[in-house]
Amino acid sequence: MAYAEKLVKSWRACWRVPGKKTPEKESGFPSEKAALEYAQEREVEARRRGRRTRSSHTLTVEDYAHTWYAGLDLELGSMRGYKGILENHIVPTWGDWLLRDLADADVEFVEWIRRLRAAGYSESRIRAIRGRFSTMCSDAVAHGLLYRNPAAQQRSRGRAAPRRVAAARDREKKVTTSPLGALLIAERAAVLTGRDDEFTMLITKFYTGLRWGELIGIEKTLLSRDRLQVDWQLAEEGSQGMARTPPKRGSIRPIDLPGFLADLLEEQAERVVHPKVDGRAKWCPCGRNLSPEHRHEPGIHVFSGLGRHHWAHSTFLYQYWAPAALGRYYPGDKRKERLVYVDEPPEGGQIGPWDRTRRRASRWDAKKTTPDPAVACWVPIQPGMRRQHLLRHSHRTLLEELRTEDPLTDERMGHANSSIQARYSHVTPGMRRRLCKDLSAAWEAALKDRARILGTESPVPTLDRLLDAHRPSHSGSGSRSAPDTGHRPIRLHAV
């Protein structure tokens, strides 16, 4: 029979479980009623299970965290995220605590959150850490190892000002770009890599809104003339390699392709070069440490990395995306950050908009007291666009500007909408045709603006061919570049 015992400053809950002579006990309750209710619940749970309930008297947070993590059944990326938070934040701080002592650790928990904020962690990261800790404590309560969750936060509690300020700053970071901005960024990326693949890849991301893993995971067999079927993504799993998994939250979907994008992807599928592998190899070497269910055959993807099977997110971000969009390598890194410099042109020559130094080392030579003769640098095309994921935000914004219907927008972005309106709204062929027509018009307008601002020549062969339609057709023109306006040759202003 469950009962409560009076202690000096609190109450203790006591209950019996099958198979054990001595009762289970849990202390720290503020009142007799709370202790008795908890004991009764634990006794009913123990009888239902028909076995002895695990004691929390000697169970540490670290031991429970390992057991809790082993019982999770999540996607590979989510499991990696949970493991990182446990190993880097929860266990180092709370690992030596007894699990039962967490129930009254409200003050210590608040101080921990303050230390994380003072250490410079972003609000989104702190929310993730708090969320994982709260989930773990909630499961411990459900298993009878805690009587309350110290990390549970009631709605409308706490200071509202910091949350609203953080939300406003987060919105400011969500920078988007126009079709012309995406075109210029893609052109710069192709100039940096020296091939057309990255031009097509970034144009595809802007006009489809694919996530990064879905973009590099486009398979040739899922690409048709007017539609791209998104069934898989390539997820980076650290030292294990690239895992072939379903898209985030199972967002399998078709994406309608406008004619120009279908042509670009068809050419890319024929042009792509994958690193050579053993002819007898069944699997791509990119996932040699993964189980067969997460591996894929070699050479099945539309895009490949530069000298590697697939692009690593961080490599492309800092070495190609950042200099293309922001004009800086490794922005924010005090040790590696540098501008994209342009060397002094030959005598009598002019600086072209795509000129740059091809040396990867720092502009400062340790043996010299003066820097190399860099006379210019690339300006940002879209200031603040620090991640290629913002092209997905830009695509969503473009759909809003084109007044695309909500059902088609949700389908294209891979978002689930459980509202009543979404249940009774459906995508029609007319919606698909209208959207493809509008996207094609946005593309043609971007090409026209590109020709007007920077001329009708491009160092990227694919774009140079696409600009043919905007070159003067009358005889005697003799020039394929923009007319002389009297301004400096470099005209790469923010778009």
From TrEMBL:
SUPFAM superfamilies: DNA breaking-rejoining enzymes
InterPro entries on file: DNA_brk_join_enz, Integrase-like_cat_sf, Integrase_recombinase_N
Record flagged with keyword Iron: no
UniProt-recorded name of the protein: Tyrosine-type recombinase/integrase
Keyword Nucleotide-binding belongs to the record: no
Keywords: DNA recombination, DNA-binding
Signal sequence residues: none
TM ranges: none
Source species of the chain: Streptomonospora halophila
Low complexity bias: start-end ranges: 474-483
Region feature Disordered, mapped onto this chain: 463-495
